[in-house]
C-alpha cells in the first residue's frame, strides 16, 4: 500500500504550528526571566493588622528584597474573603496580581456559599507560607482542666455544654463540629460576629469552650484569662510549649491547621509560578521569618511545591464538605 505524502500545505501548517509553540515557550521563558519588571499587587481579603495581613507583609518585604520590585499588599475585605479573591480571579494572569488568603477559601467552597468564581478551577495554588493552629480554650476557673474532662462532661450531660465560634462557617465553627462528629457529642454551638466577641464572652465565663485562633488566644492565655487544653497543630506550638496537641491530649488524627498561602489567577505562566515558588522556599528557611510568624501565633511552613499545595487544598475540601453535610450547616 502506497503511503500518502503530506501536501505542501500540510507541511507549512505543521511548521507554522511548531514555530508558534516555540515562540510562545520563548516568550514565557523571557517573561519569567524578567519577572517582575514592575510592582506586584498582593491582594489580602482580610483586615490590616490581622493574622493574614501580618504574614503577607512579612512575605512581601522579603520578596521585594530578593526580586527587586515592590510587592504591595492591598486589603480588600468582604464576603468572607470572596471579594478580594474574585478581584484576583478576574485579573490578568501575568503574575502581577496575586492572592494571599487562608483556608477560609476552602471552607467557603465546602459551604456551597454563593461565590462568583470556582476556587478549584480559577486559581493556581502557588505556596503555603504558614499555618495558624487553633487552641482549645476554657475559662481559667472552669472545672474542665483537660480535653478528657471536656469529653467526659459532654457525654455525661448531653446538650449542657456550649462552644463559641467567630460565626457560622468559620474555621472555629467547623472545627467544633468536627470534634462533635468524631466523638458523637451533643454540644450547643453559639456563633458570634467575629473572634473578639467570642473571646470576650469566653473570658467572662459565658461560654464553656471554643477553638480560638492562636493569634487571638495567645495574649489572653499568657495573661491568665484563658486556659489552653490543646492545640490543633501536628506539633506543639513554640509559643505554648506546655500545651499538648489534640493527639497527645487523647484525640487521634485531629489536625486542623488554618493554612495561609499564595495563589495566582488560572493561566499564570508556569515559569512565573516556578520563580515565585523558588523565592518563597528560600524565605521559608530564614530563621527571622519563622520567628516573625511565631511571634504572631503562626508556624512557618516547610518549602514545597504547587502540586503539594493543590493536593492538600483538595483533601481539605473533602474533609470540610463532609463536616458541613454531617452538621447540615447552611451559609448565612
Topology:
Elements: H1 8-34, E1 40-44, H2 51-67, E2 71-75, H3 82-89, E3 97-102, H4 104-110, E4 123-138, H5 147-156, E5 162-165, H6 171-183, E6 188-191, H7 195-203, E7 209-213, H8 214-222, E8 227-231, H9 246-249, E9 257-265, H10 270-284, H11 287-295, E10 299-300, H12 306-327
Parallel strand pairs: 1-2, 1-3, 5-6, 5-7
Antiparallel strand pairs: 3-9, 4-7, 4-8, 4-9, 4-10
Helix pairs in contact: 1-10, 4-12, 6-12
How is this structure best described in words?
- By secondary structure, the protein is an alpha/beta fold.
- The chain folds into two domains: 38-131 and 257-327, Bordetella uptake gene, domain 1 (D-Maltodextrin-Binding Protein, domain 2); 133-249, 3-Layer(aba) Sandwich (D-Maltodextrin-Binding Protein, domain 2).
- Helix content is 45%, strand content 18%.
- It is built from twelve helices and ten strands.
- Strands 1, 2, 3, 4, 5, 6, 7, 8, 9 and 10 form a ten-stranded mixed β-sheet that branches.
- The longest helix is centred in the N-terminal third of the chain and has 27 residues, at 8-34.
Amino acid at each position: 500500500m502506497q503511503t500518502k505524502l503530506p501536501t505542501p500545505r500540510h507541511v507549512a501548517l505543521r511548521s507554522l504550528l511548531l514555530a508558534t509553540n516555540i515562540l510562545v515557550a520563548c516568550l514565557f521563558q523571557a517573561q519569567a526571566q524578567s519577572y517582575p519588571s514592575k510592582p506586584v499587587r498582593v491582594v489580602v481579603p482580610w483586615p490590616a493588622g490581622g493574622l493574614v495581613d501580618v504574614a503577607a507583609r512579612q512575605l512581601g518585604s522579603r520578596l521585594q528584597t530578593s526580586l527587586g520590585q515592590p510587592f504591595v499588599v492591598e486589603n480588600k475585605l468582604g464576603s468572607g474573603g470572596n471579594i478580594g479573591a474574585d478581584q484576583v480571579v478576574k485579573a490578568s494572569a501575568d503574575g502581577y496580581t496575586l492572592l494571599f488568603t487562608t483556608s477560609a477559601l476552602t471552607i467557603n467552597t465546602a459551604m456551597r456559599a454563593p461565590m462568583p468564581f470556582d476556587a478549584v478551577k480559577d486559581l493556581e495554588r502557588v505556596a503555603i507560607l504558614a499555618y495558624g493552629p487553633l487552641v482549645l480554650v476554657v475559662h481559667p476557673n472552669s472545672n474542665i482542666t483537660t480535653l478528657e474532662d471536656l469529653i467526659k462532661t459532654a457525654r455525661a450531660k448531653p446538650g449542657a455544654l456550649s462552644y463559641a465560634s467567630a460565626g457560622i462557617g468559620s474555621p472555629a465553627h467547623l472545627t467544633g463540629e468536627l470534634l462533635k462528629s468524631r466523638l458523637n457529642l451533643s454540644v450547643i454551638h453559639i456563633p458570634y460576629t467575629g473572634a473578639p466577641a467570642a473571646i470576650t464572652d469566653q473570658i467572662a465565663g459565658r461560654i464553656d469552650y471554643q477553638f480560638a485562633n492562636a493569634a487571638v488566644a495567645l495574649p489572653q492565655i499568657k495573661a491568665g484569662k484563658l486556659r489552653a487544653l490543646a492545640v490543633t497543630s501536628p506539633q506543639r506550638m513554640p509559643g505554648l510549649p506546655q500545651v499538648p496537641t489534640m493527639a497527645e491530649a487523647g484525640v487521634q488524627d485531629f489536625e486542623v491547621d488554618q493554612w495561609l498561602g499564595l495563589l495566582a489567577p488560572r493561566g499564570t505562566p508556569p515559569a512565573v509560578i516556578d520563580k515565585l515558588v523558588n523565592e518563597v522556599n528560600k524565605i521559608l528557611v530564614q530563621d527571622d521569618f519563622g520567628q516573625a510568624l511565631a511571634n504572631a501565633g503562626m508556624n512557618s511552613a516547610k518549602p514545597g511545591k504547587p502540586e503539594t499545595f493543590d493536593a492538600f487544598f483538595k483533601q481539605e475540601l473533602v474533609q470540610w464538605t463532609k463536616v458541613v453535610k454531617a452538621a447540615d450547616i447552611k451559609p448565612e
